[in-house]
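Marked as duplicate of an earlier ticket. Keeping the data here for the record.
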Amino acid sequence: MKHLLSTTDPTIIAFAKALLQGEDINCFEMDVNMSVLEGGIGIFPRRLMVANDDYSLARRTLLDNGIELDDPK
């Protein structure tokens, strides 16, 4: 799996997941339960992961819809 997106905004994660599902791209959201440690204030970013084979299409889909992505490493 490859890291696609990190954000503290849950609405961006929800929008990104909906866009990816519309393209039949499976994604996995990581760090969802970090709110237990942070007290629900939203300081730890959530990460969205996709399969290696889907990475290019997923990246293009999100960029085409105005979602800014982290630079790949």
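See parent ticket for discussion. Strands lie at 2-7, 27-30, 46-50.
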